[in-house]
């Protein structure tokens, strides 16, 4: 029996001393019976500093005034009454004991050890240094706060959802646009601002992303507080942990109604161009290459912002009325057409008398003389200014969208 007891006792000694976490064995009256090596490392105990001797001597967890002030002692009394207790993390600073070292946060677990009669004979106190974890959580909260601040400055609607897809935060622009409240939008309340006819497809794609962890993008209408539905390009990206599991979703909704309006304007401009051609609103011009004399119809004069008959000149005079950025292209096409007696078309910016420019489109054909040389070019010109400006607005909208997606 004694041999068996001794072997059991030795195993306990070995486990206690070699445990990778701090252990402190307390007597039923609150005094410390023993501590292990991990405890010494956690509390930065060194030989000769007297700390271990003090803890194993007069120190008592039930009467320590600092533990009482921090709310730890009342929890320990519950452990000595027979209840397993988790002691929330408490900050300990070696400087308070006049010792060097960094302050750290320590969490503890108190487990009562009972005798055969159910009375608490000892309490095992396990300590865990949670400083790094709390710092990481603090940094994460700080990052999330900065992310929310950033999301409140961007022009898009923005939101965050949990791994299951329930949205728990929206930026201010979301509420400004929808006129909704946080209570109305909680969880899956965002469905109320969707077009019912489009919502089933949105839900299907969103559910698929939640299941697969893949990004989600779609353009769909959202109702504003004025009751009007506007199209929004929506991009949702997952935030994953080191194991590849989604821990959060971040989404943005970009109002693309200006892009849609630009597309509508582009279609209108194209229709105007067609109607102008039908109405004969086309300027006719002719260039006598040999004499270097250009003649314009009244409509061509109007397209260039000149009074009828105001232009009289040749190639160089006309070149001066072409935007510098388009001259090389224009004359390259003309020279190529003259070289093979063919036709050409070009879009260019004409410089107007008031310093502004106007987009024009011209197409022409080289007419040969009897000897086969290109002696004359006859062409037609129309204004495509509305078309080009709408096209430029569309490109600008695309550029802004690409910049946002690259963020």
Verbal overview:
With 407 residues, the chain is of the alpha+beta class. The chain is 39% helix and 29% strand. It has helices at residues 2-18, 37-42, 51-55, 65-69, 72-80, 131-151, 172-178, 182-185, 199-212, 257-278, 298-303, 315-319, 324-340, 385-405, and strands at 22-27, 32-35, 85-92, 104-114, 120-129, 157-161, 167-170, 216-223, 229-240, 246-255, 283-288, 293-296, 343-351, 357-368, 374-383. Strand 13 and strand 14 form a beta hairpin. The longest helix has 22 residues, at 257-278. The model is unreliable at 1-5 (pLDDT under 50).
What characteristics describe this protein?
single chain, 407 residues, alpha+beta, 5-stranded antiparallel beta sheet, 14 helices, disordered N terminus
Short description:
It contains 14 helices and 15 strands.
Overall 3D geometry? elongated
Major sheet, described briefly? 5 strands, antiparallel
Residue share in helices? Answer: 25-40%
Read across the widest sheet, the strand sequence of neighbours is 2-1-5-4-3
The percent range for strand residues is 25-35%
Provide the succession of SSEs.
HEEHHHHEEEHEEHHHEEEHEEHHHEEEH
Q: Which runs of at least 5 residues are low in confidence (pLDDT < 50)?
A: 1-5
Q: How far apart, in Å, are the first and last alpha carbons?
A: 73 Å
Q: Please, what is the oligomeric state?
A: single chain
SSE topology:
Blueprint: H1 2-18, E1 22-27, E2 32-35, H2 37-42, H3 51-55, H4 65-69, H5 72-80, E3 85-92, E4 104-114, E5 120-129, H6 131-151, E6 157-161, E7 167-170, H7 172-178, H8 182-185, H9 199-212, E8 216-223, E9 229-240, E10 246-255, H10 257-278, E11 283-288, E12 293-296, H11 298-303, H12 315-319, H13 324-340, E13 343-351, E14 357-368, E15 374-383, H14 385-405
Antiparallel strand pairs: 1-2, 1-5, 3-4, 4-5, 6-7, 6-10, 8-9, 9-10, 11-12, 11-15, 13-14, 14-15
Helix pairs in contact: 10-14
């Amino acid at each position: 029996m004694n041999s068996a007891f001794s072997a059991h006792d030795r195993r306990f000694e070995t486990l206690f001393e070699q445990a990778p976490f701090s252990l402190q064995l307390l007597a039923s009256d609150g005094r410390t019976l023993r501590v292990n090596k991990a405890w010494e490392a956690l509390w930065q105990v060194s030989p000769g500093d007297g700390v271990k001797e003090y803890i194993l001597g007069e120190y008592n967890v039930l009467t320590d005034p600092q533990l009482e002030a921090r709310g730890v002692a009342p929890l320990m009394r519950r452990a000595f009454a027979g209840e397993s207790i988790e002691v929330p993390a408490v900050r300990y600073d070696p400087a308070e004991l006049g010792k060097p070292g960094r302050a750290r946060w320590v969490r503890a677990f108190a487990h009562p050890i009972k005798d055969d009669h159910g009375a608490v004979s000892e309490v095992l106190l396990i300590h865990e240094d949670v400083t790094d974890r709390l710092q990481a959580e603090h940094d994460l909260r700080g990052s999330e706060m900065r992310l929310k601040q950033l999301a409140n400055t961007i022009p898009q609607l923005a939101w965050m959802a949990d791994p299951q897809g329930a949205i728990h935060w929206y930026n201010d622009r979301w509420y400004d646009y929808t006129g909704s409240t946080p209570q109305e939008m909680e969880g899956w309340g965002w469905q109320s601002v969707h077009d019912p006819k489009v919502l089933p497809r949105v839900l299907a794609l969103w559910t698929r992303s939640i299941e697969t962890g893949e990004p989600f993008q779609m353009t769909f209408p959202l109702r504003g507080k004025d009751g009007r539905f506007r199209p929004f390009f929506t991009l949702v990206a997952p935030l994953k942990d080191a194991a590849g599991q989604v821990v959060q979703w971040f989404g943005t909704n970009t109002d693309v109604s200006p892009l849609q309006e630009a597309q509508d304007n582009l279609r209108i401009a194209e229709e105007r161009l067609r109607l102008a051609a039908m109405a004969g609103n086309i300027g006719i011009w002719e260039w006598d290459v040999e004499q270097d004399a250009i003649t314009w119809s009244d409509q061509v004069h109007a397209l260039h912002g000149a009074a009828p008959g105001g232009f009289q000149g040749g190639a160089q005079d006309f070149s001066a009325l072409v935007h510098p950025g388009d001259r090389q292209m224009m004359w390259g096409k003309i020279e190529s057409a003259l070289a093979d007696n063919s036709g050409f078309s070009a879009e260019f910016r004409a410089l107007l008398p008031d310093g502004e420019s106007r987009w024009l489109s011209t197409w022409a054909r080289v007419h040969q003389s009897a000897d086969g040389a290109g002696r004359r070019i006859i062409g037609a010109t129309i204004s495509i200014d509305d078309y080009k400006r709408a096209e430029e607005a569309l490109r600008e909208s695309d550029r802004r969208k690409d910049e946002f997606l690259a963020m």
